[in-house]
Amino acid sequence: MEFLSYFGGVFEPISFLLLLGGTIGGLILGATPGLSPTMAVALLIPFTFHLQPAQGLILLGAAYTSTVAGGAVSAILLKIPGAPANIATSLDGNAMAKKGEGARALHLSFLASGVGGVIGVLLLIFLTPVLAQWALAFSYSHLFWMAILGVTVIGSLDSKSFVKGLLSGCIGLWLSMIGFDDNLGAQRFIFTDALAGGIHIIPALIGLFAIPQVMEMFAKGRANAAIEALEVPKQSFMDSLRELTRNIRALSIGTVFGSIIGIIPGVGGQIAGLVAYDQARKFSPEKEKFGTGHPEGIIAAESANNAMVGPSLVPLLTLSIPGSPTAAVLLGGLIIHGIFPGSDLFDNHPQVAWTFINSMLIGQILMVIFGIYTATWAARIARAPVPIMAAAVMVLALFGSYSVQQSMGDVYIMLSLGVGMFFLEKFGFSAAPLVLGLILGPIAESNFTTGSLIAQAQDGPLLYFMTGPLNMFLIFLVIASVAYSFWSNMVLGKKSVPAEAQS
Amino acid sequence: MTASRLQHIISSGIVLLVATIVTWISFTQEPADAFLFPRLIAIFFIALAVWNFIRAISGLAKVGEGLDMKSFTNIVPGLLVMGVYVFFAAKTLGFYLASTIAFLLIFTIYDPARLDDVKAWVKRAIVTFVFMSVIYGLFALLLKVQTPRGIWF
Q1: Does position A227 have pLDDT exceeding 80, yes or no?
Q2: CA–CA dist A297, A289 (Å, integer)
Q3: Which of B28, B57, B86 is the last residue of a domain?
Q4: Hey, is A430 helix, strand or coil?
């Protein structure tokens, strides 16, 4: 119950203001089509640079939580999911909005998000210290394998093609090696002066997540402003609350599946929402109503995608393996403050760790309050013109990446990586494993180098890195994640052929 | 050969080229100890890149929708503005002036409103002014970030 003693930190004036700002801002960003939670968190990281570590993490955590929930607004009112996690929400949410029940759908979505989110954060509170203690047993070889596992898990599970996912991870690992070698000071892969200092994580995050979205908005051209949002009539909060309690089955299914899926590294909210939606339909006596504006569909999907948020941070805070792409960006946010996940986090920085986690708990409640309050004018938020969003993100990306080290080199790197990532994404590569490679590369390399030095004094690197139960287990997980992805690619590939032939 | 397949071959070829350069540098540069980890990664990088290229040539690399000509044509003006803004104007004109011009240009290029619509120009000017004021308040006044002033601001 150590976490209880750190609740005070959340209510310090600046921290609480940041929590409020992150929650409201996150809801607005989440409700805006085209702005993903990952991009929102990446754009916020430069601001945290000027804050205390705990305050910075409060802002990022609040934004992460509320952008996922805010994505339901555009999913319901426009049938454009604000984030991949809200795809399942749009199935029944938009149908309800078309029937004039937009406010009811929004209330249910925020309430279900709140319940799922609180339970998810409670899991984070109780599971994280246990796993962090387990991480104490890790030596350099284990930490090396953990970093590699982080890249392969995200690379193989988060990508449509496991070859391209793993290739993205390799590109990220290579990018992390650019600059001067830490041990010998040798130059590595410095092709231009802008790369002499290596690739800083923040400009890279901004470029990789924000610029491709700006270019996606460009790709739509001029004929994109006629987005029709449905009007939101008023709805009693108590009626919505009563309706939620009548749908405990869907709420439980969503929360349980969201929590389980969240803790699996690399899977993310999109899968959580869709799996929970599918399971809620299977267990429902009114299966045929799903897809026609059934409240159970919204409740299951939204409780799942927010229940996923807390558990997705468990492997991140204990083992440096993010549970979702947004969690990968949060890892970058931790590292720039000199805080490394694992037992170190809870032993040396308990105030930072617990204040951050507690703020996520409070943030869930604020998210419900402000989400419901904003529901009546949510339609206006969701109709933000695309050209303004594109121009605003572009300018923010420039200022954000420059402000970190006041270096134009960072700005050039940001744009180059972003444009490159846009084209890579068009051909099936993904940003999440690339970012993981970039973040975990230095961790993998430093443990590999130190481990190699120790190994030379013992039985040699091969025995040091490849033997021992924990090494074997981690190697097994690396191979299993790749093999599973290979198998599922093959099976899905074969299944898709007849479907394509039929169409 | 379809345009999509050709695009996949070109993109896989570029990744293979990068992997080859990385591998070549990793195994030829000195001191060797500094390139121990890069060599380890390069082996997997080149192996995966070759595999991906072979899949693209044999028509198996179908993941990713590619880029159609219409989308590409839509992107070009925005990309040009962004390139000139970041690589030239921001430092030469000053961050705030360059950002104001770039914001207004992007808004105008992608705004469906007609170019001779006076109301649309007033709206664009107001939105640009308000947005740039917020950016100035955040970065110059609150975070005190010293940005290149260029020839003006």
Answers
A1: no
A2: 9
A3: B57
A4: coil
Quick one: pLDDT band at residue A503, thresholds 50, 70, 90? very low
Q: Tell me the pLDDT tens digit for each residue of A114-168.
A: 999 999 999 988 888 777 777 777 788 888 888 888 888 777 766 678 888 889 9
Looking at the DSSP bridge assignments, the partners of residue A187 are A180
C-alpha span between A114 and A364 (Å, rounded): 5
For chain B, what's the residue count? 153
Confidence band for A51, pLDDT divided at 50, 70 and 90: confident
Q: Which of B24, B57, B73, B75 is best to mutate for the A interface (most A CBs within 10 A)?
A: B75
My answer on whether B85 and B122 are in the same domain is yes
Residues B137 and B83 in one domain: yes
Our CA-based measurement puts residue B23 at a distance from the nearest CA of chain A, in whole angstroms, of 10
Q: Which residues of B touch A426 (CB under 8 A)?
A: 11, 64-67
Q: What is the pLDDT of residue A456?
A: 83
Residues B39 and B76 in one domain: no
A402: nearest CA in chain B?
B147
Does B89 lie in the same domain as B133?
Answer: yes
Chain A residue with minimum CA distance to B56: A427
Task: Examine residue B63 and state whether it is found in any structural domain, yes or no.
Answer: no
Whether residue B120 sits in one domain with residue B74: yes
- Across the interface, whether the CB atoms of A391 and B106 are under 8 A apart is answered yes
ipTM: 0.93
Q: Please identify, among B35, B57, B79, the residue that sits at the C-terminal boundary of a domain.
A: B57
pLDDT tens string A410-453: 999 999 999 999 999 888 888 888 888 888 888 888 888 888 88
Range of the domain at B84: 69-142
Interface of B with A in 34-63 (CB under 8 A): 34-38, 40-42, 44-45, 48-49, 51-52, 55, 61, 63
Residue B64 maps to a domain: no
> What is each CA distance from A426 to A165, A429, B17, B83, in whole angstroms?
13, 7, 18, 20
Structural domain contains residue B119: yes
What is the chain B residue with the closest CA to A213? B75
For residues B83 and B41, state if they share a domain.
no
The overall average pLDDT reported for chain B is 89
Report the SS3 class of residue A188.
Answer: strand
Q: Do A32 and A83 meet the contact criterion of CB atoms below 8 Å apart?
A: no
Q: Is B126 inside a domain boundary?
A: yes
Residues of chain B with pLDDT below 50 are none
| Predicted confidence band of residue A202 (pLDDT cuts 50, 70, 90) | confident
Tell me which chain A residues have a C-beta less than 8 angstroms from the C-beta of B71.
219, 221
The answer on B129 and B75 residing in a single domain is: yes
Q: How far is CA A185 from CA A180, A444, B33, B41, B58, in A?
A: 5, 18, 11, 19, 43
- Chain A, window 419-438: residues with a beta carbon less than 8 angstroms from a chain B beta carbon: 419, 423-429
Predicted TM-score (pTM) of the model is 0.81
Please write the tens of the pLDDT for every residue from A279-301: 888 888 888 888 888 999 999 99
Looking at the structure, tell me whether residues B79 and B136 fall in a common domain.
yes
Q: Which two tokens stand for residue B101?
A: 């011009």
The answer to whether residues A378 and A73 touch, using CB atoms and an 8 Å cutoff, is: yes
pLDDT, averaged across chain A:
83
CB atoms within 10 A of CB A242: 10
Contact criterion met (CB < 8 Å) for A164 and B63: yes
Is the per-residue pLDDT at A61 higher than 80?
Answer: yes
CB neighbour list of residue A445: distance below 8 Å, 6 or more residues apart: A176, A177, B37
